[in-house]
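## retry 2 of 3
previous attempt timed out at serialization; input unchanged, resubmitting
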Amino acid sequence: MSPVATTTSMRSLKDLLIEQVNELHTAETQSETVLNKVASAASSPKLAEAIRAHIEETKHHMERLDRVLGELGIKPKRAEMHGSKGLLEDCLAIAGRSKVDPHVRDAAIIAAMQRLEHDEIAGYGCARTWASLLGFQASASELLKSLTEERRFDESLSRMAETLNKSALEPMAAAR
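## retry succeeded, writing output
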């Protein structure tokens, strides 16, 4: 397994911040294509629309990360991140399961999307805290905006799950 590093060294909190922002940048870049496929696989129009709306938010996250990198004085550097990559692959695998009841697949999509969102929430939360501690207040503000949007999307997925998970029970009840 290759190391998860984007900087030549991690001797300071700023090095760690740069690494985290690059990881977030890479994850957001890779997510657009995956999220489009996941939205297309959703049987619930409400779920598909929520994912598509999040794709638009992702574009704003990218713009914010570019501004953060600018304040840090660096250009984006592709980061090797196994966690987000694996979560995105999980989302694709679930979206590709065509022989699953559509309601059950929607429940699985929500679960996979929430794991992805929780990873991003952790990344944005850490990066925002470090930017603030290091005195990069504009960056901390930009990161907080994306963190808030990620949390909001996660909460909307939870609300949808309350309804959609009940629909996933119906095939099971009919089989009894």
